[in-house]
């Protein structure tokens, strides 16, 4: 089995989509092994998004991610890293495929940061690193 770190970002929580998003994860057959609602600190986000430091969207991204609570989850299942990224859809919600979380529930809001509802780890190494950041 494998695990991944999923975040329902502040736009998802604020729009009341947490339940729908978690239901899609469970309906696919994955297990919610850990779950919590938390307002992230700048320190946590600078670690989480370390690879994006210096990019033009870094500061707007950190500000957005601190703008309200997120729901963090450790999700388990065989090939869950790929499986969740497939469920989530492409980064840009306007063009993410229908049938995906971002494609069905997201869109562009004319802002500097892509408000795209969810995050999912992109490799086993990132998953373990990110689970450490969010769940200690
Ligand atoms: P995530 O890592 O959140 O699952 P991702 O892997 O598709 O999504 P990354 O490239 O890791 O996206 O970027 C992290 C986040 O930064 C994106 O989810 C999005 O919110 C934001 N972002 C990425 N690229 C841009 C961009 N060019 N302009 C604005 N915001 C962006």
UniProtKB/TrEMBL annotation:
It is an enzyme of class 2 (transferase). Coiled coil: none annotated. It catalyses: a 2'-deoxyribonucleoside 5'-diphosphate + ATP = a 2'-deoxyribonucleoside 5'-triphosphate + ADP; a ribonucleoside 5'-diphosphate + ATP = a ribonucleoside 5'-triphosphate + ADP. SMART domains: NDK. The active site is at residue 119. One of its GO terms (molecular function) is nucleoside diphosphate kinase activity. Its cofactor is Mg(2+). Residues 1-136 form the Nucleoside diphosphate kinase-like domain. It comes from the Bacteria. Gene3D superfamilies: Nucleoside diphosphate kinase-like domain. ATP binds at residues 9, 57, 85, 91, 102, 116. It holds the Pfam family NDK. Its main location: cytoplasm. Its EC number is 2.7.4.6. Homotetramer. Belongs to the NDK family. HAMAP family: NDP_kinase (MF_00451). Major role in the synthesis of nucleoside triphosphates other than ATP. The ATP gamma phosphate is transferred to the NDP beta phosphate via a ping-pong mechanism, using a phosphorylated active-site intermediate. This is Nucleoside diphosphate kinase. The gene is ndk.
